Amino acid sequence: MKSPITITEQCVVALTWTLKDTLGEELDVLDEPIEFFVGGNDLLAKIEEALQGHEAGDTLDLHLEPQDAFGDYDDRLLFLEPRHLFPAELEEGMGFEGLPAGCNPSAPKDRIYFVSDIYPDHVVLDANHPLAGIALRIALKVHSVREAEESEVGAGSLGTGFFSMQITPNAADDGPDDGPTTLH
Questions:
Q1: Where would I find the H helices in 52-141?
Q2: CA–CA gap between residue 15 and residue 36 (Å, rounded)
Q3: pLDDT for 175 beyond 70
Q4: Structural domains of the chain ordered from first start
């Protein structure tokens, strides 16, 4: 009988989770397992650290302070931009990969911006992760563990963007925005 694979650097894990704030309010639930590359860019360092040595079927309950999760909220990542630079069907919560031409040239180009407020003449955009500044409780379940393929190790990611607000170099070239960006 084959012994189960334990989680180590450069493997792939399929996870589900329930994510809550410290008051117990549910922030996100991942019901169907999604694969993440361990040892790359897919997971937060504290989650990877906690997963080490576990195997399929294990559950973990973690508490993450903002600095170990999505960072502190940074008001320097809020931008007030002219409304006319955005599509007519703009809604709060929509995400954009970078800002449209004509917006603040000093705004980071490699971020995802969420529309936080819409006014007649201006739009407020926020490049913070939606969970920035929040301490989190995450209940994880490991559904499977497998060895990573060579291409996955080379990429350092399976392309699962839940834990990142950075745009990968190729993602910016994919054309127009595909609508609101979700947590997973």
A1: none
A2: 8
A3: no
A4: 11-71+134-158 (3.10.50.40), 75-126 (2.40.10)
- Whether residue 132 contacts residue 71, with contact meaning beta carbons closer than 8 Å, is answered with yes
As a whole number of angstroms, the distance between CA 160 and CA 33 comes to 12
Contacts 24+ apart (CB under 8 A), 104-110: 104/79, 107/79, 108/77, 109/172, 110/166, 110/167, 110/172
Distance CA 50, CA 158 (A): 20
Q: Does 177 score more than 80 pLDDT?
A: no
Query: What span, in angstroms and rounded, lies between the C-alpha atoms of 17 and 141?
Result: 6
pTM to 2 decimal places = 0.74
Rounded to whole angstroms, the Cα distance separating 115 from 97 reads 12
Q: Cα separation of 113 and 124, whole Å?
A: 10
Question: Which of these, 177, 166, 181, 79, lies nearest to 125 by C-alpha position?
Answer: 79
d(CA 54, CA 142): 8
Structure tokens at 98: 């970078």
pLDDT by residue (tens digit) across 20-72? 999 999 999 999 999 999 988 899 999 999 999 999 999 999 999 999 999 99
